[in-house]
Amino acid sequence: MRRITASDLMNPEVVAVREDLTVTELAAFLVEHEISGAPVVDADGHPVGVVSLVDIAAASTDEAGSGPDFYTGGWDEAPDDEAGEVTVDEDEELLVTDIMNPEIHTVAEDASVSEVASTLLAKHVHRLLVMRGDEIVGILSTSDLLGLLIDED
Description:
By secondary structure, the protein is an alpha/beta fold. Helices cover 30% and strands 19% of the residues. The protein has a single domain, classed as CBS-domain. It is elongated, with a radius of gyration of 18 Å.
């Protein structure tokens, strides 16, 4: 029996975002593509980091000074404009490059399931880029790995 590798589990359609997108554009992009995060690429298409919905939430909290505390407070402390919406000065809007994580975690396309799981756990991340040499050939998430545990009957 052939062993399962990263290339068997990965999604070969990598949806990346440009580092010069605004955070608002990033949020719309992630929602439109129904994904929770993506690799970040520079103008030449080279990977320079990763960004996720968690990064957007953290940046929103930082921008507001004290964002909503989902565990103890809710949205009561969030600054509102007259319409009840949080405002952002467009001249000062953050870019993806301001909130992304510059660490890029990868596995080789022939990495075993054990190597993939070990890397995800050791790096405390939810997605890995799958590489063939210097080329990105896919993306693999914890959801892809967990799919192995589900009986599809």
